[in-house]
Design a protein that fits this description.
Blueprint (H helix, E strand, L loop, with lengths): L2 H10 L6 H19 L3 H9 L24 H17 L6 H4 L1
């Protein structure tokens, strides 16, 4: 399931997902894909969405940055962690693992 499909499914289930959390999770998805796969569509999408993650090396030319140039601050890790926690805490009744087994 794609991230977009997941979002639509959660919306149909009336799971409360705020836009800031969704944006953080989407950025985290791109960061994870860049870390796993390097060059590719996720890198290009991330450079467009979050050029600041690459500007430390090429402030005037973020387009030439590569996956190896990705730099995440401690603050960004905390923001990503908070978004993941907010997602799982948004509607705990949907995540009841005991009832699914």
């Amino acid at each position: 399931m794609s991230f977009c499909e997941l979002s639509k499914t959660l919306h149909r289930l009336h799971v409360p997902i705020d836009s800031e959390m969704f944006e953080q999770l989407d950025t985290l998805r791109l960061v994870a894909n860049v870390a796993k796969h390097g060059e590719g569509a996720a890198l290009e999408d991330l450079k467009k969405k979050e050029p600041k993650l690459f500007l430390h090396l090429f402030p005037e030319f973020p387009d030439i940055a590569s996956a190896d140039d990705l730099l995440l601050s401690e603050r960004r890790f905390v923001e990503f962690g908070s978004a993941v926690l907010a997602f799982w805490n948004a509607a705990p009744e949907y995540w009841d693992v005991k009832s699914a087994t």
